[in-house]
Amino acid sequence: MECHLLRRTQGNRFVLPDHSRLAVICILWLLFSLGYTFRPGGPLLETAKNLLLILSALFPIVNPLGGSPVFLSLTRDYPTSARRALARQVAVNSFVLLVSSFLVGTHILNFFGISIPVVQVGGGLVVISNGWAMLKQKEEPDRGREVQEKIDLQDIFRNAFYPLTLPLTVGPGSISVAITLGANLPHHLGANLLSILATVVGSAIVAASIYICYGFADRLAAAVGESGMGIILRLSSFLLVCIGVQIMWNGVSALIHTFASVAR
Fold first, then answer.
1. Rounded to two decimals, what is the model's pTM?
2. Which helix (H) or strand (E) holds 122?
3. Residue 64, class by beta-carbon neighbours within 10 Å (0-12 exposed, 13-18 middle, 19+ buried)?
4. Which residues pair with 15 in a beta bridge?
5. pLDDT tens-place string over residues 193-219
6. What does residue 170 show for φ and ψ, rounded to 5 degrees?
C-alpha cells in the first residue's frame, strides 16, 4: 500500500503532492519559529524569565497568605459577601498599583525629585505605625448581626485603598521592588512589549492570590480556630513592624551611603 503523502510519477519516483508540500513547509516553519523564540536569549524565554523574576521578587514581600489574618481582623464585622467584595477591590487596586509602579513609577519619582530610598523611609514608617497599632489592638467580642446590618458598601470600600491596599498589601517594599524592576526593562520596542506582558501577567497572578487569600480568610480562621487565629494575628502584626523597620533601614542605609559618597 502506498503512502497517501507520496505520489508515484512516470519516472517511478515518489514526490509530494502540493497539499503535502504545503503541510511540510508549515511544520518546518513552525519548528524553526519555536527554536528561534525558545533559543537561549530568545524573546519568549526572556519573557518567561522576567515573569519568574517578578513573581519571585513580589510574592515574599506582598505575602497574601500572611496578610490574610490582618485583613480578617480589620473586617471581622463585615458579612462574608461584603468581605469578598472588599477582597476583590483590594486585589484590583493592588494590580493597578503594581502595574503602574512597574511602568511609570520611575518617571513619577523623577518628576517630583523623589528617590527610592526616601520612599522606603517614609513607607517604612507608615508600615511600622500600622503594625504597631494592630499589635496593641485589644481583642473585642464579636458584635454580631446588628453591626453587620449597619455597614453599607460605602463604609466597606472607604478603606479599600488605604490602609488595606496601601500599605498593608502593596507596601513601599513592593512598590520599590516594582519600580526597580521597571527601571531595568529594555527600552526597544519588541522586547519592551514582551516585558510589559510579563509585568501584566505577573501582577495579575499576584492579585489573584490576594483575592483568594483575603476572600477566604474566614475559612482559614475556622480551620485554625479563634485562639490560633489570635496567635497568627499577633505574629503577623509583629512581622509587619519588623518589615517596616527593615524597609526603613534599607532606605536609611542607602541615604547614608549616598552621603558618604558625596562627602568623599
1. 0.68
2. helix 116-135
3. buried
4. 7
5. 778 888 999 999 999 999 999 999 988
6. -105, 95
